[in-house]
Amino acid sequence: MTVLSADVRFDAAHPVVRLSGELDLTSSAVLREAIETALGCRPATVELDAEALTFCDSQGLRALLQVQHCVTNAGAALRLTHVHGTFLRVLELTQLDKAFAVDSATGRGAGDTRARA
Q: Which regions span the lipid bilayer (predicted)?
């Protein structure tokens, strides 16, 4: 098992939370704490960079929905970036790719209707 780390970086435009490792029941608190830190500067958008995310189970999806609710309640928008591989496929199968603003590694974003190979 790989532990989840969440590095919060404050760019000029908005905070970026870079996830690395596995998002599941045991690591969801790490995500919540990072989002709370990111919201401290009252941004319009919080970016969640999933490039180094290696695993996300149903509890990880639940944690993502919970932090999206938290971000929305703070008056900001949550954007998932660098979504790829199995994580992207899980979002598509559960149709959560429509619930989040998603920028995938393949260039497909939320609502993209291009044919998939």
A: none
Give residue-wise pLDDT tens across range 62-114.
999 999 999 999 999 999 999 999 999 999 999 999 999 999 875 444 444 33
Strand partners, 46: 78
Q: For residues 21, 89, 69 and 32, what is the CA-based torsion angle, rounded to 10 degrees?
A: -10
What separation in angstroms does the CA of 1 have from each of 34, 37, 69? 21, 25, 28
Torsion 33-38-40-43 (CA) sign: negative
Task: Delimit the domains of the chain by residue range.
Answer: 22-45+58-77, 83-109
- Among residues 28, 36, 39, 38, the alpha carbon closest in space to that of 65 is found at 28
DSSP-derived secondary structure letter, 109 = B
